[in-house]
Amino acid sequence: MAGDRSGAGPGATSPGGTGDGEPGWWPEVEPFRIKAVERIRRTTRAERERLIEEAGLNLFGLRSEDVYIDLLTDSGTSAMSDNQWAGLMVGDEAYAGSRSFYALRDAVEETMGLPYVIPTHQGRAAENVLFTTLVREGHIVPNNMHFDTTRAHVEHRKAEALDLAGPWAYDPVSEVPFKGDIDLEALERVLCERGASVPLVLLTVTCNSGGGQPVSMANLRATSDICRRHGVPLFLDAARFAENAYFIKRREPGYGSRTIPDIVREMFAYADGCTMSGKKDCLTNIGGFIALRDPDLYQRATVWAVLFEGFPTYGGLAGRDMEAMARGLREVLDEDYLEYRTGQVAYLGRCLAEAGVPIIEPVGGHAVYLDALRFLPGLGREALPGQALAVELYIEGGVRGVEIGTVLAGRDPTTGLDRYPRLEMVRLAVPRRVYTRQHLEVVVEAARRVLARRDGIRGLAFAEEPPVLRHFTARFRRL
Ligand code: P70
Questions:
Q1: How far apart are CA 66 and CA 47, in angstroms?
Q2: Which CATH class is domain 45-67+334-478?
Q3: pLDDT recorded at residue 290
Q4: Is 203 touching ligand 1 by the criterion CB < 6 Å?
Q5: Domain 82-331 grouped into CATH 3.40.50.12780
Q6: pLDDT band at 24 (very low <50, low <70, confident <90, very high)
Q7: Which of ligand 1's atoms lies nearest the C-alpha of 404?
Q8: Quick check: CB of 150 below 6 Å from ligand 1?
Q9: How far apart are CA 325 and CA 281, in angstroms?
Q10: Average of per-residue pLDDT across 384-407
Q11: Quick one: pLDDT at residue 159?
């Protein structure tokens, strides 16, 4: 287990160490060796120019075979361990009462301290089941920042998805250690004025839309106090809970000598439940769950789970998927893994920053976010600079990122106008345990080359725009 290196953030330039008596001269190295590999293919620039045109200048439209380094998402793209692969073989495929369900339930209870578990096929399915149970038209759901599917599920019920991250979250360069913190005064105000319309409060750990930024334990505790005083349940959108716990250990006073499992238990002790996308910190390729403290809410949610997902001991998953999630949930708590994981992402950020590429700082847990407004200062927001930059990175190096900006934000459901978020970004999400440093160096070089020719880059406009979650299937044209 790595020890406390308090003061140095993950991936800081000071060399790392395992803290178990070894000298701290090595960097955040892979705590694994590679047992199976997957061929990837380089394409030519001419091929990529043609392929991205055919995809309507939307990176979601590309075939993965035509992508060299795929940083579209860290969701469902992890490499599973030998232990997880072995788990697939012993998965119990029974319709009811599957042994693998109990393995998952036990792993959730052990790590999160939440005894009632409903498996779902992925995170948004957990949102669908929970929000069908709790959220009605006219309700307000406060969150530090909603990620896209969460927002869409709230708004689909004609409720308001209210982002209450503090102003620090929108400053791309301030070195605030917990930029994911919710604004406690704003939350208090909302609950005082409109508390009767708030069915639950969410905290997204880490805060994906804000750059993968962590939420501090102090903020979790204070949020929980406020919610309890107003009688409103607090839920975690827990997709990247382990990465968040690691940041707490490294950055928050008083946590440096606590273990990750201990920190995780404390985080969840402040919550009434969570929705989980297992495709992130369960280290699996599919899966999710709802975990709850209250047996009555569990009963009510189960009704919808049966309708949407399946019998409550499989919830849209194969038994083997639940087995892999159960094992991943324990593996992800390994501090050597989390040090490597956050260190690799920090390494990418550091190299990009050194190359002069404007990024959101500090670097978050799962991705480096390029600041498209500073990268392409010649383009206004209406020219979709994030999307334009993502397209150029693909053309330059076969690197696929994703726009987290105006395209993703969509239109305001009441005004119908573009929402223009305060940050216009391209996210380079690093899949877990998949790429090496050399792969990341290709990414840095591609970004450096795009930066060198940025003055010649044109903006984009929608050519086809679907009504919900438009970023997945939209087509674009060059201005
Ligand atoms: C991502 C994916 C999914 C997600 C999340 C949080 C904090 C719930 C969910 C839903 C979505 C995505 C975005 C761009 C490209 C590809 C995929 N996040 N809560 O990459 O979970 O996907 O399992 O339904 O981040 O951030 P699920």
A1: 9
A2: alpha beta
A3: 98
A4: no
A5: no
A6: low
A7: 14
A8: yes
A9: 9
A10: 97
A11: 97
